[in-house]
DNA sequence: ACGAAAATCACCCGAAAGTATGAAAGCCAA
DNA sequence: TTGGCTTTCATACTTTCGGGTGATTTTCGT
């Protein structure tokens, strides 16, 4: 709710500024109508900004289905889209590949130059993101999704 | 974009209305500052409304991934020769298949109507015969040898 | 420069996996 | 029928995995 105060302050300041400016030249050089128009314009813009910032954007959830047909053909290209969709980071993907190689957490830790605890954390996150319970299942699913060979 | 025109029109009309009203009583009864304040307030509100209406409600598209398991080619035939060569029994092969399904020892035990201890024994023997250390590696090797899909 | 996301690490605990050893029962062929 | 193989099961022990929590540091985009 600090935003409300902020906007209120800005509003007040703007008003004061305009009122000060009024006595300098606006009332002299221009008609009152023009002045009012400018004020209106400024505050419309301000209103729009406020509205955008203060309004919680209503989220409409639309489910879309993407079929991932695994390619039994040759070269194997990582399906980046799937990685994005699942929120799997680079590091996580690296470790996923090592898991698919049949390596233990300790071996992965050694190969990656990190502690086994770190590996464990990554693995846990991977399991969650792939929505599986065991690393074996993770390998399967990852293969189906085209993110491991 | 019709909305833009609509709001533009409303804005113009409001301005005109206010200007008309000005000559009737506002300039007489009140100071210019108050008048400006009222205008500002009105247009702030209008701005907020515009902002809300004109802003495309954010759609959060949640894309779900369906893995279309690819089985276009071979029906998979078990390489019996390899099984003989490695001395893997029928029972062991059955369990190997279940391992490759990503099942835990307990799940395999339930499905096979044997105790988990029995499964463990089989698994241990399988690991030895495939010359691997972990079940994940067993799956890989078995797949390479053509004894699991 | 700031905040969010990513990466790192630690500790605890329980579950799962794997090792070792032993043993009983059934099958099958020499 | 005897010896070899398979299948079954158990007990005990060690290692690996996975969940949960919390913390610090890095990185990166605005």
Summarize the structure in words:
The structure is a homodimer of 149-residue chains. Chain A has 149 residues and is mainly alpha-helical. The first copy, chain A, has helices at 2-29, 32-54, 80-86, 90-100, 105-112, 116-130, 135-144, and one strand spanning 60-69. The longest helix of chain A is centred in the first third of the chain and has 28 residues, at 2-29. The first copy, chain A, binds a DNA duplex (30 and 30 nucleotides) through helix 4 and helix 6.
Describe the secondary-structure layout:
The structure is a homodimer of 149-residue chains.
Chain A (H helix, E strand, L loop, with lengths): L1 H28 L2 H23 L5 E10 L10 H7 L3 H11 L4 H8 L3 H15 L4 H10 L5
Helix pairs in contact in A: 1-2, 4-6, 4-7, 5-6, 6-7
The structure holds a DNA duplex (30 and 30 nucleotides).
Pair with the biggest interface: A-B, 60 and 54 residues
Secondary-structure element pattern of chain A, one letter each: HHEHHHHH
Structural class of chain A: mainly alpha
Radius of gyration of chain A: 29 Å
Q: Sheet with the most strands of chain A?
A: none
Q: What percent of the residues of chain A sit in helical stretches (DSSP H or I)?
A: 55-70%
Instruction: State which percent range the strand residues of chain A make up.
Output: 5-15%
For this structure, the quaternary state is homodimer
Distance between the termini of chain A: 50 Å
**Low-pLDDT runs of chain A:** 1-10, 25-29, 51-65
């Amino acid at each position: 709710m600090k935003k409300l105060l902020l906007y209120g302050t800005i509003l007040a300041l703007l008003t004061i500024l305009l009122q000060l400016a009024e006595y300098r030249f606006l009332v002299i050089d221009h008609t009152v109508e023009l002045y009012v128009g400018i004020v209106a314009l400024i505050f419309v813009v301000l209103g729009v900004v406020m509205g955008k910032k203060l309004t919680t954007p209503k989220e409409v959830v639309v489910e879309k289905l993407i079929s991932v047909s695994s390619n039994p053909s040759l070269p194997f290209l990582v399906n980046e889209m799937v990685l994005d969709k699942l929120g799997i980071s680079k590091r996580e993907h690296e470790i996923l590949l090592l898991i698919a190689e049949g390596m233990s957490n300790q071996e992965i830790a050694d190969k990656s130059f990190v502690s086994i605890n770190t590996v464990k954390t990554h693995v846990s996150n991977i399991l969650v993101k792939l929505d599986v319970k065991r690393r074996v299942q993770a390998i399967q699913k990852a293969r189906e999704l085209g993110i491991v060979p």
